[in-house]
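yo, Catabolite control protein A is done. seq:
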Amino acid sequence: MTATIKDVAKRANVGVGTVSRVINNHPSVSDEIRKRVLQAIEELDYKPNAIARSLKIKSTKTIGVIIPDISSAFYPEIVRGIEDAAKDLSYNIILLNTDLKREKEKEALNMLKEKKADGILFISNTVNKNLKREFKKTGIPVVLVSTKDLEGEIPSVTIDNERAAFDITNYLIKMGHRKIAIISGPKDDPNAGITRLEGYKRALLESGISVDENLIFYGNYKFKSGYDAMQKILMLKERPTAIFAASDTMAVGAASCAMQKGFNIPEDFSIVGFDGVELAEYFYPPITTVKQPRYEMGSKGMQLLIDILRGETKQKSVVLDYEIIERKSCREMGGI
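structure:
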C-alpha cells in the first residue's frame, strides 16, 4: 500500500506539518528532525503528490508541450531541446500530439489546465483568433515555438522564414537558374506557407525574373504532397531547371518522383529543401537545405517560458539564425 504523509509523520514521531515543512525545505526545521523525517521518507518510499504540493507552493514544475504531428521528422529535435532545458531547470514535461486537429488542441489545453501545468510550449501550428481565445481561457503562460502570433501578443521563438526563403531561392539564382518552381506550404499558413512563398517571389523579382504562377505548387510539408507536386511539374511543357520545396520532406518526395520517372538529380533538376532534417541529409543525392536550429528553438523556448514564469523578462520574441547547408542536389547553369 502506498505510504501517506501521515505514515511518514508517525514513523518519524513528528507532526504532519513538520513533514510538510521538510518536504518544502522550510528553514525552521532542525537538522536532527529533518534527518529523521528524510529517513522515514526513504524507508517508506514516500512520494509527495505534486498536485497537492502545488496548492501550497503554486507550482507543479510541469510544462505542457503541444505538437501538431508526432510522426513528422521536424519535431523530435525541438522536443529534445525542450527536454534537456527542462531537466536543467528541474521541470517535467507533458507531451501532447494534436494531429493538426483544432478540437484536439482544445482538449490538450483543457487537460493542461486540469493538471495545473505551470506553462505551455505550443509548436508550429498556425495561431488564429480562436486558439488565442483558448490560450487565455487556461490562464497559463504560453510561448510559441516555430510559429508566431501575427499580432505579436504571445512570446515566440522562430527564424525569419521570409528571409530564409529569399536566401535559398537567391542561391539557385546565383547558380544560373531562372526558371525556378516552388512547392509551397498551404495557402492558409501564415507562418511558413505564405512567408516562404513571399521570400521566393521577392528573390525572383529583385533579380529581374518574373513570377510565373504556373511554377507555384502547394503541399502540406509531407512526402506525398512533394511527390504529387513533382508529377505535375513533369507534365509541364516548359519544365523548370530548379525546384525549391518548402520542407525537406517535400523535397525528398519530389526528388523521389523525378528519379522514379527516369530523371536525374541534379542533372535534370536542381532541388533545395527547408528545415535541415536527417532525411534530406541521408537521401541520395543529399539535399541542399535551409537548416533551422531546431534544438536551440526548443531550449530557447523553454528558457523564455521559465523566465516569464519567474518574472525575469518581458521579451516578446526571439528570432534565431539559420544556415544554408550546401550538398549535392544542385548544379551550376552558367551565367545569368
